[in-house]
Design brief:
- By secondary structure, the chain is of the alpha+beta class.
- It has two domains: about 5-45; about 100-200, no CATH class.
- The termini are far apart.
- Helix content is about 30%, strand content about 25%.
- A six-stranded mixed beta barrel has the order 3-4-9-6-8-7. A two-stranded antiparallel ribbon has the order 1-2.
- β3 (about 100-110) and β4 form a beta hairpin.
- The chain is extended, with a radius of gyration of 26 Å.
- The longest helix is centred in the N-terminal third of the chain and has 29 residues, at about 20-45.
């Protein structure tokens, strides 16, 4: 039996048992789809993708627990910035240490957009941009000397919404509430599927 005859016979049998054939094809398609979905989830969550290229060598601490061994009590909470500076900034066996806090959505305003746009924001230190390799479209990260000043790095999408362009916006200002911030740089926006680094405004 040649291939042509085999295909014709298979087609005839499939037509004769259409319900079984449909269920079989649907089952195979579902298995393939689930495999691809899990593969994509694994890739996004684990693989080195923009801007989290150093995932394999990155460690994070969100909460810390204090235990009293005398009365077996414990207390948990987030790390404060002073604790980060005292315990982690002084480590000698790491390349970079960064501290950040996710501040959620905030409405920001500019002279070009007085109605304001709601954007996600993060408070970060200068080493944040060394741990996470955000691609700068223009400008540069703020420095250690500037980290206590009202300066910010924004994404290209935010720049377009605030100023109508993502070029030539370094040095321009925007407001969060009544506080005015100076744009130090513009970065290519990352995906929301990279929550460790994702934000639209970094300051």
């Amino acid at each position: 039996m040649n291939w042509t005859q085999a295909c014709k016979q298979a087609w005839n049998e499939a037509r004769q048992h259409s319900v079984y054939t449909s269920l079989y094809i649907a089952g195979v398609a579902l298995a393939i789809a689930l495999t691809m979905i899990f593969g994509v989830i694994y890739f996004v969550k684990m693989a080195p993708i923009y801007p989290e290229y150093n995932r394999a060598n990155t460690y994070s601490i969100e909460y810390i627990t204090f235990r009293d061994t005398t009365n077996y009590s414990s207390m948990s909470g987030r790390l404060g910035y002073n604790a980060v500076k005292e315990w982690f900034y002084t480590l000698k066996n790491v390349e970079h240490v960064t501290a950040m806090t996710s501040l959620g959505g905030m409405t920001i305003y500019s002279d070009n957009n007085k109605e304001g746009v709601r954007m996600s924001s993060k408070g970060v230190d200068p080493d944040f941009f060394k741990v996470f390799n955000l691609e700068f479209v223009e400008g540069k990260p703020f420095t250690e000397e500037e980290q206590n000043l009202p300066v910010a790095v924004i994404t290209d999408r935010v720049a377009r919404q605030l100023f109508g362009t993502d070029e030539g916006v370094t040095g321009r200002t925007f407001k969060i509430s009544i506080q005015e911030f100076v744009v130090k740089g513009v970065v290519k926006e990352a995906s929301r599927l990279t929550p460790a680094s994702y934000s639209q405004v970094y300051y």
